[in-house]
Specification:
This protein has one domain. Helix content is 58%, strand content 0%. It has four helices and no strands. Helix 1 crosses helix 4 (74-84). It starts with a helix and ends with a helix.
């Protein structure tokens, strides 16, 4: 059984990191750490957010952060970035 809570946390963290890099020009995690976390993302895992499950299944690519530009909750990512990483 896969822990969907852990999957959710990983997706959120990776999204904030990609957002910081792509939109704020702020590398809050090394490339190696980003790559390691990106490879842990399992897009086949369903979480409690069907909209983001669909987004990750359709747009996520572990070898780049460009997918973040299509993220449906950019304002929430900005809030998390400002609150925890600024």
């Amino acid at each position: 059984m896969v822990d969907y809570c852990k999957e959710t946390r990983n997706r959120i963290k990776l999204s904030v990191v990609a957002y910081a890099y792509e939109f704020k020009n702020d590398a809050i995690m090394s490339d190696a750490e980003f790559d390691e976390l990106a490879l842990k993302i399992n897009t086949s895992v369903s979480t409690t957010n069907p909209q983001l499950d669909y987004f990750f299944a359709k747009h996520f690519q572990p070898d780049t952060g460009m997918w973040i530009h299509k993220h449906p909750e950019l304002s929430k990512l900005d809030d998390l970035y400002e609150r925890y990483y600024k």
